[in-house]
């Protein structure tokens, strides 16, 4: 671990995201207390931890003995005060709405010391508004992971209007010590960075399907076997820069401005996803599942196993395990 003054961590709210975060922290050596109001959620988190550890064992990432050590660093409780009282970093992953996060965070801070950092997991809510019921909103920060957090390194760090710089620095240092790649937003925007990029791409996919340019399955395949392969290595700006050769991205973009503008003319620009979105995607994804090989998985569970296995291979190449 990198040097931080964080000795223990609490994860409050242990659904899919919270439980995965907790596993990541324990994997990297931190004692973690998992807290949820529902005992069933805690039991589910414990079961998920064992399943995810088994995947790591099967892929040669950790040994069975190391898995037991990781599990030994994870404790479970329904007592919020007990969970957060003696920790230096709290990852809150409660339900994605202001009405539940605001009172929960006010309650959390009442049990903690002033120098405890509180990070809230949200995919689109604004940190400033989440902190409205807190006495010390300056120590709340957004920590948005990409699913599953215990595998994907990205975490987007979002400041609220009152978040102090020391909180940003401490949060980034902690996430880095866990092997994550924190990206700091300079200002609050709904959806952070990655989700906005993902929605922009998906809007164009839906538009292409609606206009009968291609099927949903073929749009997925076009992205997977084209730009997606390169994006798994480097970002689009660096890809454009390398393609430009000695000229560099700036000169090339200026020369291609006219052709780029031409593509924008008939690209999706609508502000609301169509009412038939659910039906369109449900029908399209079944076709995509049917086209998958047995190895890739034709059911959700098998496809998820394949996804995680491939993620681990990519992470090995990036030296992020």
TrEMBL record:
This is L-carnitine dehydrogenase. One of its GO terms (biological process) is fatty acid metabolic process. Residues 9-187 form the 3-hydroxyacyl-CoA dehydrogenase NAD binding domain. The gene is lcdH. Pathway: Lipid metabolism; butanoate metabolism. The record marks 144 as: Important for catalytic activity. Belongs to the 3-hydroxyacyl-CoA dehydrogenase family. Residues 191-275 form the 3-hydroxyacyl-CoA dehydrogenase C-terminal domain. Pfam families: 3HCDH, 3HCDH_N. One of its GO terms (molecular function) is NAD+ binding. It is an enzyme of class 1 (oxidoreductase). InterPro entries: 3-OHacyl-CoA_DH (IPR022694), 3-OHacyl-CoA_DH_NAD-bd (IPR006176), 3HC_DH_C (IPR006108), 6-PGluconate_DH-like_C_sf (IPR008927), 6PGD_dom2 (IPR013328), NAD(P)-bd_dom_sf (IPR036291). Keywords: Membrane, Oxidoreductase, Transmembrane, Transmembrane helix.
């Amino acid at each position: 671990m990198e040097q931080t003054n964080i000795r223990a961590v609490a994860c409050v709210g242990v659904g899919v995201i919270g439980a995965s975060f907790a596993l990541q922290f324990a994997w990297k050596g931190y004692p973690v207390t998992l807290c949820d109001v529902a005992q069933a959620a805690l039991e589910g988190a414990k079961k998920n931890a064992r399943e995810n550890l088994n995947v790591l064992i099967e892929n040669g990432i950790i040994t069975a003995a190391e898995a037991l050590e990781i599990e030994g660093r994870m404790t479970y409780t329904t007592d919020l005060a007990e969970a957060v009282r003696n920790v230096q970093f709290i990852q809150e992953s409660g339900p994605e709405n202001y009405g539940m996060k605001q009172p929960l965070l006010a309650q959390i801070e009442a049990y903690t010391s002033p120098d405890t950092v509180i990070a809230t997991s949200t995919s689109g809510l604004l940190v400033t508004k989440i902190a409205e019921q807190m006495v010390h909103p300056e120590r709340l920060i957004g920590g948005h992971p990409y699913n599953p957090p215990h595998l994907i390194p990205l975490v987007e760090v979002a400041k609220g209007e009152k978040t102090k710089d020391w909180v940003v620095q401490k949060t980034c240092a902690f996430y880095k010590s866990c092997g994550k790649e924190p990206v700091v937003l300079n200002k609050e925007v709904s959806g952070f960075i990655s989700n906005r990029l993902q929605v922009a791409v998906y809007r164009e996919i839906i538009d292409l399907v609606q206009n009968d340019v291609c099927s949903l399955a073929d749009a997925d395949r076009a992205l997977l076997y084209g730009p997606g392969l390169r994006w798994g290595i480097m970002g689009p700006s660096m890809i454009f820069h390398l393609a430009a050769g000695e000229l560099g991205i700036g000169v090339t973009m200026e020369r291609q401005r006219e052709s780029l503008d031409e593509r924008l003319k008939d690209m999706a620009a609508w502000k609301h996803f169509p009412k038939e979105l659910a039906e369109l995607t449900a029908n399209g994804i079944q076709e995509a599942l049917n086209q998958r090989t047995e190895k890739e998985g034709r059911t959700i569970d098998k496809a998820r196993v394949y996804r995680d296995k491939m993620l681990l291979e990519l992470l090995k190449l990036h030296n992020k395990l």
